[in-house]
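REQUEST FORM: STRUCTURE PREDICTION
Request ID: SP-0412
Submitted by: Lab K.M.
Chain count: 1
Length (residues): 136
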Amino acid sequence: MLYWYKDIMLDDKYRKDSEKHIDRIKKYYHAKPKSKIFRNKKSWWERFVGKTIPWKEYFVIMISDNDSDLFDVLSTRSFIWRHFERKNVYVVGIYSSEDTAIEAITTVLRSEYENDPDYDPKTVYKDETNYVEDPV
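STATUS: Completed
RESULT:
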């Protein structure tokens, strides 16, 4: 299941049509395997994962599964792997490249640490009450 941070961080070019981009990411996450009726010959990745690779690539900042890390930055193209269907994904931000996503999260964390030296990002970002199922 996809859960979205209430104050989701967006790239400047995604801010204008945020609903369209969020819907596209939901579509990638919930993609169904292609039917064998309409296409007999599958690409090598479709035979392995059973889905088509999304043509538009977003980079999603999400809460990490392990306790040693706080965030993961993943491409939406990695949502084709089946294990994402079985786990909860908590999305904090959407960006156009991995570098801008990492830069955005570091600037947010730096500014929070400058304002409050005792700031604990795990209490803010790992709290499930800060997430909604449908942000639109």
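NOTES: The first helix runs from residue 18 to 29.
Reviewed by: T.R.
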